[in-house]
Amino acid sequence: QYPKQADVYHAYHVVRANGIPDENIILFYYDDIANSKQNPTKGIVVNSPNGTDVYKGVPKDRAIIGKDITPERFLAVLKGDKQSAGDLVLNSGPNDHVFIYLIDHGSPGLIMFPRDEMYAEDLVGTLKQMHVDK
């Protein structure tokens, strides 16, 4: 879990450093490693040996965290479905560029979520529907 979450936090900082504002970023992360008993540097997460703290500054108000991370919620966020996902959804149109950085422990055709799984065909179907809906 540690390397996966550390990479998400690092990706957030890379995207921000390249000028993407927080209001255009939606994160999904479990948030159970920074303060874990097994973390020798409480409250600090690094994604490379002797690296800087990539956890610092990662927003929680722009994130779906912990048990709220489900395949259904992820797809609803992508579709902009506030009824299913809440207020934190993708609000994009036909001229927007959307970057999705997804890390998991899945296998071919399968995407693993903390407590569930999603099939690639569901993600592909959602992306195709987003294209149709513009």
Automatic annotation (TrEMBL):
Q: Which GO terms describe its biological process?
A: proteolysis involved in protein catabolic process; vacuolar protein processing
What's the superkingdom here? Eukaryota
Quick one: a GO cellular component term? vacuole
Query: One GO MF term, please?
Result: cysteine-type endopeptidase activity
The cross-references to InterPro entries, in alphabetical order and at most eight, read: Peptidase_C13
What protein family is recorded?
Belongs to the peptidase C13 family.
What this protein is called in its record is Legumain
Q: Which organism is it from?
A: Medioppia subpectinata
